[in-house]
Amino acid sequence: MLLSHSTLTLHFSDSALLRNPFDPMPKFSIHQLNPLTISLHKPARLSPFFYFSSLPLSSNSTPDAQNELSISPQIFKSRPQFGSYKLGDATFYRLIENYATSREFHFIHQVLDRMKREGRVLTETIFILIFKACGKAHLPGEAVNFFHRMANDLHCKQTVKSFNSVLNVIIQEGDFSYAFKFYLHVFGANSKGFQPNLLTYNLIIKALCKLGQIDRAVDTFREMPLKNCNPDVFTYSTLMNGLCKERRVDEAVFLLDEMQAEGCLPNPVTFNVLIDALSKNGDLSRAAKLVDNMFLKGCVPNEVTYNTLIHGLCLKGKLDKALSLLEKMVSSKCVPNQVTYGTIINGLVKQRRAEDGVHILMSMEERGQKANEYIYSSLISGLFKEGKSENAVRLWKEMAEKGCKPNVVVYGAFIDGLCRDEKPDEAEDILQEMLSKGFLPNAFTYSSLMKGFFKKGDSQKAILVWKEMMSQDMRHNVVCCSVLLNGLCESGRLREALTVWTHMLGEGLKPDVVAYSSMIKGLCDVGSVDKGLKLFYEMQCQEPKSRPDVVTYNILFNALCRQDNLTRAIDLLNSMLDEGCDPDSLTCNIFLETLRERINPPQDGRLFLDELVVRLLKRERKLSALRIVEEMLLRFLPPEPSTWSRVIQRTCKPKRIRETIDECCRSLYG
Hints:
Blueprint: E1 9-12, H1 14-17, E2 37-40, E3 49-51, H2 63-67, E4 81-82, E5 85-86, H3 89-102, H4 105-117, H5 124-136, H6 140-152, H7 160-172, H8 176-186, H9 198-210, H10 214-223, H11 233-245, H12 249-261, H13 268-280, H14 284-296, H15 303-315, H16 319-331, H17 338-350, H18 354-366, H19 373-385, H20 389-401, H21 408-420, H22 424-436, H23 443-456, H24 459-471, H25 478-490, H26 494-506, H27 513-525, H28 529-540, H29 550-562, H30 566-578, H31 585-597, H32 606-618, H33 622-634, H34 641-651, H35 654-669
Parallel strand pairs: 1-2
Antiparallel strand pairs: 2-3, 4-5
Helix pairs in contact: 3-4, 3-5, 5-6, 5-7, 6-7, 7-8, 7-9, 8-9, 9-10, 9-11, 10-11, 11-12, 11-13, 12-13, 13-14, 13-15, 14-15, 15-16, 15-17, 16-17, 17-18, 17-19, 18-19, 19-20, 19-21, 21-22, 21-23, 22-23, 23-24, 23-25, 24-25, 25-26, 25-27, 26-27, 27-28, 27-29, 28-29, 29-30, 29-31, 32-33, ...
């Protein structure tokens, strides 16, 4: 039965109030309702009534016609007004809130147009709700459009509160350049009649720091007191972080003193920013003083503070101090997390103390912390590198027993370790297990397996691994190509190496220093030294990562000296020094052996190395000079007295020399 001349009243709960009124009503055809009156009851509030369009909608009505449904003016006739508000204003606000929640901004524009035509009151609060919805929808441009329409079209007064809301939306999207342009537009020549407040400055300083415009951020910061706006702890912390990112740590530390003088108390975030920067710079003594300063200010270090200091100590190789700090952290009732333990374990592994890392792992588990895959990966890799393969395999099994499933990184570390232990066949079995569990090996895994087979002397199997890798569409990986080239050249398969070389160039790959050095060695090993030198000269013209290193030079030194071409080798050594590449112990061995066995009369090489030390000192390469001196002493070839004098003057501070001499005198005659 059609209800074309009936009026139907439906009662909704609060949740139904948020329903899109343009959606079809449940259990009723909208074509049967003409007109439809809906009573929306809310507790302790006047119940407004909605009248939908009085235009009858037939079954032939189009969706566009339905979208034109609007609130009927009949509901507002003969109704009282309450101050500047009219009956039904709250209904409009609820509609806007509904559409903002569902992110239907085109409907919001329709409601705003209707409110404008009826001369209804628009408040800043409802626009701030719209701006927040734009932020959740990741539409900063839409927020700016609503902001401009707010004043220009809808005549709603803007304040700094609505401006900050839009500015925050833009910054949350990471468009810092747009944020600063918006700020300049609003507070430029055509000012909106309100001034920026503390939140405005905090947001814009953050944007400038993210853009790397630190000087401009500092100028904005200095402008704040002139606008009767005092910086807070967030302002200072943001600017300090920006300065530290630009390596202007001293200015950031000065800012800490300034904020305390101004009566603004720093919080843990403030201190952590500075401690992190100082630790990364290796200035651990100043970082430790800041921690003491924290305690003096009643600011308790948190896990971020401790993790930062521990990371800095590990970078400097001071693992024992890092371990002491870990104990202090626990005694301070600050719970170490996976980052803390992972940092220390990784530092121990780098110092070839993987066993100590395993003890830390056990301590970690006793304190209720579970190790992640990366911690296991670091330990397994470290144990294998230290030749403790049995312990590594045991840890691999324990990892599975404790419910920590290996990922690509752990599988790669275990495969690499087995290959280092000359067990590539077992490593290949692990690779198959990895594939069966749906993990795709990366270039590192394939490279490790290839190295393992080459090391075992099974170059044919290594080539098969290469072909399998090619089938996985990894043909464009330079590292894998370099490993293959090196293995082929080491096993004397120069012809195949040349084929791979041609393939690399044909694919547009740029050989790295390993690939070049491998080919040069392969050519030199078969006596084609001139071809090797030609490739070396080509290498010198490449980008930095492909230029010769000490390994490349040593290959050519060895080849030239074997041909009794010492003069040419020394010329190449001069070129090496000019290029800023320093010799190592192998360089010394090559020339010393040549001088002893291929020169008549034989020389012990003392004068040769002594001159090399002097030349390095003249170039201010002190550490390299000291390494050569160490090589000389190990071979009982002491430098000349004049060279000793140069070494001491260039490498020791005069004040420290005097202190050392005085200390020696006291011990001898005191």
